[in-house]
Amino acid sequence: MNWYPNKREGLIWGLGLLLALLLAEASIVRGMLGAPVGTWLFLRALLLVATLPLLAFLVYGYWGLANLTYRIERNGILIRWAACADLVPMDEIIDIVPLATVTKRLVQGVGWPGYRLGQVQEAGSGPLRLYMTRSPEQCLVIRTRARGYVISPANVEGFLADYRARRKLKPIAKWAQGLRLPGLLGLGIWRDRLAGAVALPSLLLNLGLFGYLAARYQALPLRLVLSYDLQGLGDRIGAREELFILPAAGLAVLLVNGVLAAWLHRRERVLALLALCNAPLVQALVWLAAIRFAR
Length: 295
What we know:
By secondary structure, the chain is an alpha+beta fold. It folds into 2 domains: 1-178, no CATH class; 188-294, no CATH class. Helix content is 46%, strand content 23%. It has 6 helices and 13 strands. Strands 5-9-10-8-7-6 form a 6-stranded mixed sheet. A 5-stranded antiparallel sheet has the order 1-2-3-4-11. Strand 6 and strand 7 (115-122) form a beta hairpin. Helix 2 (39-66) runs antiparallel to helix 4 (193-216), helix 4 runs parallel beside helix 6 and helix 5 runs antiparallel to helix 6 (269-294). The longest helix is centred in the N-terminal third of the chain and has 28 residues, at 39-66. 21% of the residues are buried.
């Protein structure tokens, strides 16, 4: 049977945050339209790009709240959040108790008023995975040997009665405890800190080149040399706007390497890291070409 939390407060707050962020992004875009190419335009564009991960988090988190469900079966409890499913086998459950009996501290996590999710470590209670829409005093904890799951069904008595009834029945299938993620979110490269550390310099070099060209743009002639022959003489003249093709090409290489590394990571981690390692070299070569053309 499906049991649902009280989502009203979280949905209202989430919608308000989404609208506020979209209005802020629209204001940034409006300020960029017609603005001259320069450092301020680059900084505005960088701020706009920086808000996109927050927008993705709000949209996906709002979807997760909208379809948050606690389903009790004879095999166990299935927590549905967005495209994810968290399986808690019945034979792994120790008990279900109020959160206040496990920890007296205010549970943290990420989210907004009326909505908390994430994974936290509480002293004395071990790891806790949050799927809550109420204050900690109104939440339950599904305790297992591995971790606890903090939930907040609107009808606590009905939820507990259904759990006890299903608990008396024998499971008809063996569940493996754990979080089931959809395809892209389930890629191991997202949790590989070394891969992130290798990819970050390439991204910073690429963004830096966009900023350098934007800062130099107004000082450049309207037309400049964009290609040299084997004797070192200019053989193609182009508009200064074409210089931005260089960092754009570097960004394209970075994205292709990232996709390749994500695909390889599922099979061979070392090859994935090697694919990421050549990206800084490519960005450095693009930098050298840009500096030569823009000097």
